[in-house]
Amino acid sequence: MAEKVLVLGPCGQVGTELVENLQKLYGSQNVIASDIRKSEQDVFQRSSFEILDVMDKSRIGDVFTKHKPTLVYHLAAMLSATAEAKPKLAWSLNMDGMFNVFDACLEHGVKRVFWPSSIAVFGPTSPKLNTPQTTVLEPNTIYGISKLAGERYCEYYFRRYGLDVRSIRYPGLIGWKSLPGGGTTDYAVEIFHQALDSNSYTSFLKPATSLPMMHMEDAVRATIEVTNAPSEQIKIRSSYNISGCSFDPASLAEEISKYLPGFTMDYAPDHRQQIAESWPQSIDDKEARADWAWQPKYDTQALVINMLENLRRLKST
Ligand code: SER
Asked: Which protein residue's CA is at the shortest distance from atom 3 of ligand 1?
């Protein structure tokens, strides 16, 4: 049966590239995007678009009734740094939004849904290096707490109701087609824009703050691969660790300066430093590799070259 794919909250960093890839895979006419406001980006002009707030359960029902999706990607959420400023709203959006969407899937017979988790499920007591899939999970950010609770619900909805939820723990995501908003890893995207604009950048994280990162192309491929893998291969029903590369601001600056001589980096750490320090530095993703053949393509060097090449081209047109 041909899929009808509904993407909720696609106007953020992941959704813009995910929708483009889903349009290629299923045809633009079989993809429906829905967000609280419509983005002007070309990709959203090619498919149906519904204005929808995931907190509005009855409107979700209307959109499901109208488009009859067979597959749902639920991306709408508040990221770590913004969530710390608005913890109650973050909790409601991240949790109630999820319940509303999962319940709509059950009510409307949608069998498969993707929901993103994050490295933010780990906390200060988790191992920092090669953090395993199963370990101490004591997040101390509201974003991390909501993602951990969300993961438990994913497993619960699968075991109790048979909803085939697919999920991965995104690291910091870096792409040239869209900008992040409100995350702790956002510096690793901003740096490329400012490097090309002014050959300098002021990092809001300290030089040696290593974090797990991933090129957006890898992240979108992982998202589609985990969602489309045969159900029996998905052995982890909470959310999979996935790893791309790991670096800190100082080594990213050093790599960038190989291609932009004279690039200078300053440091003005802010409240996001504390969030970053509570997260792992690198991730062990052997379960994803074994269960659904996950394999990243971009290491740090390839990521830097790709970002600079594409942004330079975009900025010169
Ligand atoms: N990139 C996200 C953030 O910084 C982590 O999931 O909030």
From this structure: 183
